[in-house]
Design a protein that fits this description.
Blueprint: H1 2-17, H2 27-30, H3 36-52, E1 60-61, E2 70-73, E3 82-86, E4 91-92, E5 95-99, E6 102-105, E7 110-112, H4 117-123, E8 129-131, E9 138-141, E10 150-154, E11 163-167, E12 170-173, E13 178-180, E14 184-186, H5 206-217, H6 233-245, H7 256-262
Antiparallel strand pairs: 1-4, 2-3, 5-6, 6-7, 8-14, 9-10, 11-12, 12-13
């Protein structure tokens, strides 16, 4: 409609100014008979209007530490064939499934999660949320406004997928759907109960799972097995990398100071 109004306004200006074109119909006929020239002009206006409209930001992007491209594979491990290599910073399709640190995209390809913005978004405050309405479900839409189609309605209190993009009060989830931010609330990290004991290689259980979950959220690699509740050598290395980056004693053992730095103490 903006393109039509603009074209109509400019045509009126041409008529007042005596601007003429080599058209077979006069301006007085222009409103009655849609000439091919007018239709072409309108088409150009519509195209320009569409191009000028802001395109929605992508939900997920490649974010490799080295700046190199990211392998998109046929399965969730480095044993699977590389289908393509996506350049650093390029947008990715929405996440359909996760397996450990691996993400399956809607295209069916698998990428290594820590080398995308998927888990980096979790490290930013307020990115893990749940529905918080006055009791009704929350509409998850195909775009960031009430003008977009409702894909599903998520029950009050239910957890949401990771927030990967924002546009005003609207939040885009890793699924690609959009929800209204004020009807959600942040999931605060819960203290990890260790029973007063130190966690180290060989430890198992929910406390280890909490450590691994936070490490992955902070973009540390806990190995191909992902979050498995077992404190193995890869988890120990991830803890040591975290300790080194945060000025802690690098011993690979999770105690009160390491927990506090992780936001779990």
């Amino acid at each position: 409609m903006d393109a039509l109004a603009y074209t109509h306004s400019y045509a009126s200006h041409e008529a007042r100014s005596g601007i003429e074109y080599e058209l077979e119909v006069e301006f007085s006929d222009w409103l009655q008979v849609p000439s091919s020239a007018w239709l072409n002009l309108l088409a150009v206006g519509v195209v320009v209007s569409c191009i000028s409209a802001a395109a929605p930001a992508q939900a997920l992007q490649v974010d490799t530490p080295s700046g190199r491209c990211l392998n998109a594979r046929l399965g969730p491990s480095t044993n699977h064939i590389v289908h393509t290599c996506v350049r650093d910073g390029a947008p990715l399709k929405s996440v359909a499934k996760t397996q450990g640190n691996w993400l399956q995209l809607s295209s069916g390809r698998w990428v290594y999660g820590p080398y995308t913005t998927y888990q980096k978004a979790q490290a930013r405050g307020g990115s893990i949320r749940r529905v918080s309405t006055k009791g009704s479900c929350l509409n998850a839409r195909l775009g960031p406004s009430t003008k977009f189609i409702v894909h599903t309605c998520v029950r009050n209190g239910a957890p949401l997928k990771t927030v990967v993009n924002r546009q005003g009060d609207w939040l885009q989830l890793a699924s690609g759907r959009w929800v209204y931010g004020p009807y959600t609330k942040v999931n605060q990290p819960q203290p990890t109960a260790t029973g007063g004991r130190l966690l180290k290689q060989g430890s198992k259980g929910d406390a280890v799972k909490g450590i691994q979950t936070q490490l992955v959220a902070l973009k540390y690699d806990v190995g191909s097995t992902g979050i498995d509740s077992t404190y193995g050598p890869n988890t120990r290395k991830a803890v040591m990398d975290f300790q080194k980056a945060n000025g802690l004693v690098v011993d690979g053992i999770v105690g009160p100071k390491t927990l506090k730095k992780m936001g779990l103490g």
